[in-house]
Design brief:
It contains four helices and two strands, in the order βαβααα. Helices cover about 35% and strands about 5% of the residues. The chain folds into two domains: about 20-75, no CATH class; about 75-105, no CATH class. Helix 1 (about 25-40) links the parallel strand 1 and strand 2. It starts with 18 loop residues before the first strand and ends in a 17-residue tail after the last helix. It is mainly alpha-helical. The chain has a two-stranded parallel ribbon with strand order 1-2.
């Protein structure tokens, strides 16, 4: 029986454009930012890293300006601070559709989590 090729996750596409991971100015961000950087590099992507960027408002501007490509963020902070919502959804499932409309990930997979469990 012929095996079909494994579907490629969008992050696996190799491009000449490097990804720049950003991090705010506290320990958890440094750790998560480095985890994202290392996981993306392990996938063979060119990755830069910038830390100590500052508050949510500052890092959001850095993201929209193109100086960084991604950064780790709490979903509630993203919705209330970055996107100006007055409240957060009552469940995680209710949160994700709003994230997609606001330019977040197209699906619920973490872009740096290996699909094959490695």
């Amino acid at each position: 029986m012929e095996r079909l090729p494994r579907p490629r996750h969008p992050i696996e596409r190799r491009t000449a454009t490097p990804i720049t991971v950003g991090a705010k100015n506290f320990t958890e961000q440094y750790v998560l930012g480095q985890l994202y950087r290392q996981a993306l590099q392990a996938k063979g992507l060119q990755v830069g890293y910038k830390e100590n960027i500052g508050s949510t408002e500052l890092i959001a501007k850095t993201l929209t300006s193109g100086k960084i490509s991604i950064y780790p963020e709490y979903t509630g902070v993203m919705l209330t601070v970055t996107f100006g919502r007055k409240s957060t959804p009552k469940t995680a499932n209710a949160t994700y559709p709003g994230r997609r409309r606001r330019g977040g990930a197209a699906d619920d997979r973490d872009p740096v989590r290996p699909e094959d469990g490695r």
